[in-house]
Amino acid sequence: MDTNKFSNRHIGVTTDDDKAAMLKAIGVNSLDELIEQTIPSDIRLTKPLNLPPAMTERKFAEHIAELAGKNKIFTSYIGMGWYDTVCPAPIVRNVFENPAWYTSYTPYQAEISQGRLEALLNFQTVICELTGLPLTNCSLLDEATAAAEAATMFHGTRSRAQAKAGANTLFVDEHVFESTKAVIHTRMEPQGIEVVTGDFKTFEFTDKVFAAIVQYPNGDGEIEDYRAFVEAAHAKDVRVAVAADLMSLVLLTPPGEWGADVVFGSSQRFGIPMFYGGPSAGYFATKDEYKRTIPGRIIGISVDAYNHPAYRLALQTREQHIKREKATSNICTAQALLATMAGFYAVYHGPDGLRDIASRIHAYAGFLAEELEKLGYKQVNKNFFDTLKIALPERVEVKTLREIALECNINLRYFEDGHVGVSLDETTQPKSLAVLLQMFAGVAGKTYAANVDDINRGRYFDEKFVRTSKFMEQELFAKYHTETELMRYIKRLERRDISLAHSMIPLGSCTMKLNAASEMLPLSRPEFQNIHPYAPVDQAAGYIEMIENLSAALIEITGLKGVTLQPNSGAAGEYTGLRIIRSYLESIGQGHRNVVLLPASAHGTNPASAIQCGFTTVTVRCDEKGNVDLADFRAKAEENRDNLAASMITYPSTHGIFETDIKEMCDIVHACGGQLYMDGANMNAQVGLTNPGTIGADVCHLNLHKTFASPHGGGGPGVGPVCVAEHLLPFLPSHPVAFGNSLNTVAAAPYGSAGILPITYGYIRMMGADGLTEATKVAILNANYLAAKLEKDYGIVYNGARGRVGHELILECRTIKEQSGIDESDIAKRLMDFGYHAPTLSFPVHGTLMIEPTESESKHELDRFVEVMQCIRQEIDEVEKGTADKEDNVLKNAPHPEYEVTADEWSHPYPRTKAAFPLEWLHDGKFWVNVARVNNAYGDRNLVPTLCGCCQC
């Protein structure tokens, strides 16, 4: 084996002997023969991908270091939603750089996710405590999209009187961040919601207004008193959402205490680097009455089978998949890893530590304001937390100040009206203030020599804004303030989770592949972490070069002509692609087209995204083999010919097969005047062998956390790039601050979560064209190998035209349930006793398990999984034959926690060894769950989304 070849490290099946044994089990003579039987010949690429030669890991390390070196780290006082911060070293080392945390999956399977669930509940507790509201989710994508989610939620929950009166106007204060306003406009317009921007002080509510959004402190840094505004809004049955700086709420009265219905924002300054715009966790808190409509996921406290406390996802668990077009949001992943880090940041500092940080930031801002006044500058903001808006003396020009600031390696904010903004943060030191004051003095023709070492911690806002309520008094926030204690706490939680560091995660449709260390390492470089998204472009030259290189690679891989990297998730990419289509249709006078065809096999977020974009969905049925029913597809396209906007097709389908009629489906849509949207969630089965452009798609979104090696992070971060055909290029998202216009802006930052792009860039550069193509082939090989091994015991629900699955397969469990009473959930829970995460449960077909092994898994690991599944099948047979009790058996009781197996009493009719060690190799490092099967119904009936005030629950 060539040890310098990265693809040999990434791809699990590398030896000829292993490949030969797997191909024999499948019943083919070569890998190429398998591919010929799997992918229709009329869509196969005729030449290899035109990508740069593959790099070794060392060469890539040198290359990415060179790119990083082109970024210039200036001290940025720009603010506007991003602030420099300090991520405590134990969190960097034990969470951010730890594969046990960043390779885990969304915690749908609660029993093997207790660590992450607790960490996310901690985050929720912090958000509720600081905002003064009782309910929150465990993160959203960013502040701007959280604003749009608030507006959508308010619109969807209008009173009957409002709906009857046609209340369809959203008021947004003019001092909300520009990026937030841009995303709101993008999201509201297709839903027919009118957005009115103005001054909250003079705005008058009418019966047409259903909601309002303001910022606290506002976008200029002024702390406004919104109490009277909220009272007036509520008098008219108008709900109010407040964008709030989370750190400021340590000192300021929380909006929940003066009537806000929603408080949202970013938790970035709780220890998350700026990353040129992301990733960082948005937050969203609200009142208990919205618990059924709040977007995203809620972590709740429930009990297990023995009444022990247990954490789980509550209420909204996968609701966008289940409700489809009736979903309240299209959110699939958010920013779980970053929310986890922000939660640990709050745990580490505790309430006193946060007060120290916030009061220091505020005191430094006040000191700077007072000293600038002495130099002839005027502070415009009367009440402020960390941001000054400065009026310059007559003799001082903005141009001169900007030039000198840049010479001092400083970025300031420059308002259109000539004012200058300075936002201080956790990293600001007395010497930083000295440099600022000397710079401002020099521009004004003066000198500055005051002592900045002894700064009083005064207050620079009116007493009416002072927070008087206590927060974070739970025991948790008083226990882990030393590094030793925090390290041990993080490790305790880590041990309660299964991740790729433990075993294969066989989830279909989620592609839990290797996130290579060499791809992850660049994320820890300060040159990528400490760049503000609005920094001058020349300071981000390395980022821009990487983005351009990555964009070119994605364009080549998809066979399309352009790409945006702005969407912060796959679901956000879906929405963006549809928004691009809508803009194009409007530009050619076809804006009336509003119908989207969706196969029944489409990803569950597809219909939700279409509805969010203002379209009407029409479902196309599938035949008994799982293929889209071509006759029904044609008939419904023709039936809606005059109004057909698009069809959204996942390829290979969510049923795990390459449909042979895909090109004809594209032709049908185009003939009827529509656009073909390809959901690229399953691109891991396409790269190097076919692509959306060759097939005939106009738009394709990609999931970097699936095909392109970004870690899932327990439910995010993600990036959802959208690639488009040439005629759609003019409608790619822009950005009001970075690019000067707000066309189709879908994220707060111009390049979305730019900070994790080095992962995908590294994956493509180190794999090269041959490596990427081989990865696709092996992904298909592994899936077909598992299908061949498991078909006899379980049955495969869908096979392609020539009897092959794509890169994933669906196991039939419905017959098993009929014959034994054991269902797919029992099998999923039993897998935990073997140290495995469950496959995808009852999706896309109810009563089944969907498996995707990915190319990263070795034959040894696949065989181990097969052995486990065969063992479980034998246990099912025991129940079916009556040799095991119908109810009290290892499957119905699974998983078996350590406390149960080691208890003095054992009441089950089967031995402990059968429960815990059904296979001999489990004695070597068994993964122990720490809770028994979780009671989902109890957790929904008794929603507890935070730690209580008296204990840690």
From TrEMBL:
Keywords annotated in UniProt: Oxidoreductase, Pyridoxal phosphate
All residue ranges annotated as the Glycine cleavage system P-protein N-terminal domain in the record: 8-440, 470-733
One term under GO cellular component: cytosol
InterPro entries xrefs: GcvP, GDC-P_C, GDC-P_N, GDC_P, PyrdxlP-dep_Trfase, PyrdxlP-dep_Trfase_major, PyrdxlP-dep_Trfase_small
Cofactor(s) this protein cannot do without: pyridoxal 5'-phosphate
Residue ranges constituting the Glycine dehydrogenase C-terminal domain according to the UniProt record: 775-896
Enzyme Commission identifier(s): 1.4.4.2
GO molecular function: glycine binding; glycine dehydrogenase (decarboxylating) activity; pyridoxal phosphate binding
Record-linked Pfam families: GcvP2_C (PF21478), GDC-P (PF02347)
Residue numbers carrying N6-(pyridoxal phosphate)lysine: K706
Substrates-to-products reaction catalysed: N(6)-[(R)-lipoyl]-L-lysyl-[glycine-cleavage complex H protein] + glycine + H(+) = N(6)-[(R)-S(8)-aminomethyldihydrolipoyl]-L-lysyl-[glycine-cleavage complex H protein] + CO2
Family note: Belongs to the GcvP family.
Subunit annotation: The glycine cleavage system is composed of four proteins: P, T, L and H.
PANTHER family recorded: GLYCINE DEHYDROGENASE (DECARBOXYLATING), MITOCHONDRIAL, GLYCINE DEHYDROGENASE, DECARBOXYLATING
Function: The glycine cleavage system catalyzes the degradation of glycine. The P protein binds the alpha-amino group of glycine through its pyridoxal phosphate cofactor; CO(2) is released and the remaining methylamine moiety is then transferred to the lipoamide cofactor of the H protein.
Protein's name according to its UniProt entry: Glycine dehydrogenase (decarboxylating)
Organism: Tannerella sp. oral taxon BU063 isolate Cell 6/7/9
